[in-house]
Amino acid sequence: MDPHYRVAIFGSARISKEDQAYQDVFRIAAGLAREGLDVVTGGGPGIMEAANAGHKSVGGESHSIGLNIKLPFEQDGNDYLDIKQDFDRFSQRLDTFMSLSDAVVVATGGIGTILELFYTWQLVQVKHLCETPIVLFGPMWPKLIAWIKEEVLSRELFDQADLRRVFLIDDPLRVVEFLLRVHRDRAKMEHVCVNYDKYKSEFSIAP
Q1: Positive or negative CA dihedral for 162, 152, 142, 115?
Q2: 90: domain CATH number?
């Protein structure tokens, strides 16, 4: 597999094509494809399909990748994958996401999406991942961050520094712009994460 910069996009399998979240994620993935970035999803329907379809709508040499989980009620891989791998276990699939992905976008989703978010965040917290920014996209996330600050951070069960790599961005084009900035800066410096505070002031909305 070519060493492209890869963006994991997490989100619900239950989102329809008519939903604004589907259309927004389609736009994000298309924007990433235009710049030659790979997209990695769970390979299924809903938000995953939106990301893979958006990426494939542009073409080019970058890859639309699906890491599909085998479940009795879902899910077959969507029709927009250049590369597909099937998994029997969520744990193995999550670790593959982490090994492949340089950045993470978390869109609207349920338990599975929340699992993917917190698994990524945990690895960032314990420094198993260093240069992987987490973008929270969509209206459901600001209230979660506010809850974490009120209920977790206030009890000193969480450090302020743990919020540094989480970015709340509510516009698809801004998501693409942010990820491109990180990608370009990463090529210029040893540790792009030293710029995260600056990025937050430029891109992230207040929770």
Answers
A1: positive
A2: 3.40.50.450
In single-letter form, the type of residue at position 77 comes to G
Beta strand pairing call for 134-136 and 6-10: unpaired
H helix intervals, the chain: 20-34, 47-56, 90-100, 111-125, 141-147, 172-186, 196-203
Query: Which among 166, 158, 135, 40 is positioned nearest to 95, based on CA atoms?
Result: 40
How high does pLDDT run on average in the chain?
A: 92
Please state which of the ranges 46-50, 129-133, 137-141 shows the lowest mean pLDDT: 129-133
Q: Is residue 1 part of a domain?
A: no
The total number of structural domains that make up the chain: 1
Residue 79 to residues 48, 56, 191, Cα–Cα distance (Å) = 11, 10, 37
Q: What is the pLDDT of residue 1?
A: 37
* CA distances in angstroms from 6 to 1, 39, 133, 143, listed in the order given: 11, 6, 12, 28
For residue 111, what are the domain limits?
6-203
153: exposed, middle or buried (C-beta count within 10 Å: 0-12, 13-18, 19+)? middle
